[in-house]
Every structure is written in C-alpha cells, then in structure tokens.
Design a protein that fits this description.
This protein is mainly alpha-helical and 152 residues long. It has one domain. The protein contains five helices and two strands. Helix 1 packs antiparallel against helix 3, helix 2 packs across helix 3 and helix 3 crosses helix 4.
C-alpha cells in the first residue's frame, strides 16, 4: 500500500520547498519592507551592526535579499541550490551570533514560564532544510527541474 505513495514524492519536495520559501519571504519582508511589525531596512542594518558584523550595510542588504529574494526563488524553484546555500549561510550566522546563547528550545523561558528568548531549534531546522535543497536541488516540480518527466 505504501508503494502507491511513491508517485507523490515529487509533490512532497515541492511542498517543503514552497513552505521554506514562504517562511523566508515573510522574514525577508519584515527586514526589507517592515511588514508584519518588522524592522525595515534601517532597523535590519542596525541589527546587523549591533552584533558586531563587519560592513553592516552590505551584510544587511545581503541578508534582506537572501531572505526575500531567496524565498521567492525557492517557491518558484529557480536557482534553488544557490539561494538555498545563501539561506543556509544566513541561518548559520543567525545561530552563531543570535541564537546560540539562548539555549536549544524555540520557546525558552525565563524561569517563570514566560518566553524570553528564541533558542537555536528553529533556525537549526531551517538551516538543515536549506542544506537539503542545496544538496538535492529543487525537484521535479520547479523551474530548475523544468517540470520534466523523471530522468533515470
């Protein structure tokens, strides 16, 4: 019975790729346009500078474009490996500079049960998913895959 689900494996790759892309469109939109209460361009550049990264303007723009543009590219499945690598690097830097000291769990608490920090659980997962697309490509249902019939 489970063998009949093999026909859907390409659709499964599309779902995960589109979900990852949508997450990064949203996060990039916060940083680039200030959507959903995000910091906007100047806030993002300031945030990058706050963590002591060199060239905060250049790296801030790279961050915003990697997230927003990379998210769009992932949804479409175009230049997937390149943008997935960019997102993976983004998440690796976020883990080291922001989340590492906050513990592992997404909703870490301050001891009173109130959330106070975001641990590395979520960015680590996003990093691993992005690396999966860097290594495995966009899949059949993508511009990269040319919506082609499976090749052996």
């Amino acid at each position: 019975m489970l063998k009949s689900f093999d026909n859907y494996r390409h659709f499964a790759v599309l779902l995960v790729r589109a979900a990852l892309g949508a997450i990064f469109i949203a996060h990039g939109g916060q940083k680039l346009f200030g959507w959903w209460g995000g910091p906007g361009i100047q806030g993002t550049i300031g945030f990058v500078g706050h963590f002591g990264l060199p060239f905060p303007t250049v790296l801030g723009w790279a961050l915003m474009l990697a997230e927003f543009g990379g998210g769009i590219a992932l949804v479409l499945g175009i230049m997937t490996r390149l943008f997935a690598l960019g997102i993976a690097v983004d998440m690796a830097v976020a883990i080291v500079k922001v989340h590492w000291t906050q513990g592992f769990f997404l909703g870490a608490t301050d001891g009173t049960g109130h959330p106070h920090a975001i641990g590395l659980e979520y960015p680590l997962f996003l990093l691993i998913v992005a690396l999966s697309f860097f290594l495995g490509g966009a899949g059949r249902y993508s511009i990269d895959g040319g919506f082609a019939v499976e090749r052996k």
